Amino acid sequence: MTTMSLPLIGFTALPHVGGILGGLIRRKEVYTWYASLKKPSWCPPNAAFPVVWTSLYTGMGYGSYLIWKELGGFTEDAVVPMGLYGLQLALNWASVPLFFGAHSQKWGLIEIVLLDGAIGATMLSWYPINRTASLLLAPYLAWMCYTTAIRYCIWRDNPDEKKE
Question: InterPro entries from the xrefs (predicted)?
Answer without folding.
Answer: TspO/MBR-related_sf (IPR038330), TspO_MBR (IPR004307)
